[in-house]
Design a protein that fits this description.
Blueprint (H helix, E strand, L loop, with lengths): L3 E2 L6 E2 L7 E4 L3 H11 L1 E7 L6 E6 L2 E6 L5 H14 L4 E10 L9 E9 L15 E2 L2 H14 L3 E8 L10 H7 L4 E3 L2 H11 L2 E11 L8 H6 L2 H14 L3
Parallel strand pairs: 3-6, 3-7, 7-12, 8-10, 10-11
Antiparallel strand pairs: 1-2, 4-5, 5-6, 7-11, 8-9, 8-12
Length: 244
């Protein structure tokens, strides 16, 4: 089968080499780590812009993993093309987030039921109202069940998808906290909106890498290599979503 190049020229792969279910970290090196440590017989299907993508098997089922970059525009581009041009049906973001909630601690797992945001990405849909960015319930349910089987404490709730990493509004984090936001990150709303618009499935599973209020934080190396509980929950959820 010939290599297909996406319209943005950001992905070049044989469609047959891309699984229907995909895990997506922001960092392509984390995608490489997941492929090498969790998938059997992984094969690299994309190297364009060093946004590495791999496909292998997990417990006998075909699963892919690929980076999505930083921010809503980046994840919006990659997921749109994977859904539309490469036959992907379900995407699970596996990423890092900054803790907001009182009970959320560094290294905790957060499963995003929905995402509030200051992004205007959804303006393109001309939706007559405010469009909620929500997870696929089936995958959300399976992720919660996987966490329980694995003995991992996972917080389920709302996250905030920010369009900026450095926020000049010093009161923003406190406001998010008042509304029960568990964590802040930069991609989930874009993923959820894209999946909703295309009739696909999406879920975001996050590990708290730092806490906005306590100042505790993980190093870059720890962020890349130490999110095992999140990865295992995501793989179990992907396995449930994958075709036999």
């Amino acid at each position: 089968m010939a290599v297909k190049e996406s319209p943005s020229a950001c992905i070049a792969a044989e469609e047959a080499n891309v699984a229907k279910v995909m895990l997506m970290p922001g960092d392509p090196l984390r995608a490489k780590y997941v492929a090498e440590h969790y998938l059997e017989n992984p094969v690299c299907f994309n190297t364009v812009r060093n946004m590495l993508g791999y496909t292998g098997t997990y417990k006998g089922k075909k699963i892919s993993v690929m980076g999505h970059g930083m921010g809503v525009p980046s994840i919006g581009l990659y997921t749109y093309e994977l859904y539309n041009f490469f036959g992907v049906e379900s995407i699970i973001r596996i990423g890092s987030a900054g803790g907001i909630g009182d009970d959320v601690k560094v290294r905790d797992v957060v499963i995003a039921m929905g995402a509030s945001t200051n992004s205007h990405f959804a303006d393109q849909y001309r939706f007559p109202g405010q469009l909620c960015a929500t997870a696929d319930y089936g995958m959300l349910r399976d992720a919660v069940a996987a966490a329980e089987r694995l003995g991992v404490r996972a917080d389920v709730g709302q996250v905030f998808t920010a369009d900026q990493f450095y926020n000049d509004n010093s009161e923003a984090a406190g406001t998010y906290r008042k509304f029960g936001i568990l964590a802040v990150e930069m991609e989930t709303a874009g993923l959820y909106w894209t999946a909703q618009r295309l009739g696909k499935k999406a879920l975001s599973i996050l590990t708290i890498s730092d806490h906005i209020f306590t100042g505790e934080a993980l190093s870059a190396e720890e962020r890349q290599d130490s999110f095992h509980e999140m990865m295992e929950i995501a793989l179990e959820t992907a396995w449930k979503a994958a075709e036999d």
